Amino acid sequence: MATLGHTFPFYAGPKPTFPMDTTLASIIMIFLTALATFIVILPGIRGKMRLFWLLRVVTSLFIGAAILGTPVQQLNE
């Protein structure tokens, strides 16, 4: 086959690219794990404080994920 201008059949073809950015996927998984852990702990908080803690933690997790998920390009690069 190689003499006719073809490639050898045992050479691997081009590797397909992964369709998603793995750093973004890891950031999402870390923050979802932290949220799931907090939801498991949430029933131990009494009274109205449960709602306030839920809003506080979910808001801070969202802000942290938004900051880490969209990095800003630096001016000197």
From TrEMBL:
Matches recorded under Pfam families: DuoxA
Highest taxon above the source species: Eukaryota
InterPro entries: Dual_oxidase_maturation_fac
Protein location: Membrane
Keywords: Glycoprotein, Membrane, Transmembrane, Transmembrane helix
A single Gene Ontology CC term: endoplasmic reticulum membrane
Annotated membrane topology: Multi-pass membrane protein
Transmembrane segments: 24-45, 52-72
GO terms classed as biological process: protein transport
Family stated for the protein in its record: Belongs to the DUOXA family.
Name of the protein: DUOXA1 isoform 3
Source organism of the structure: Pan troglodytes
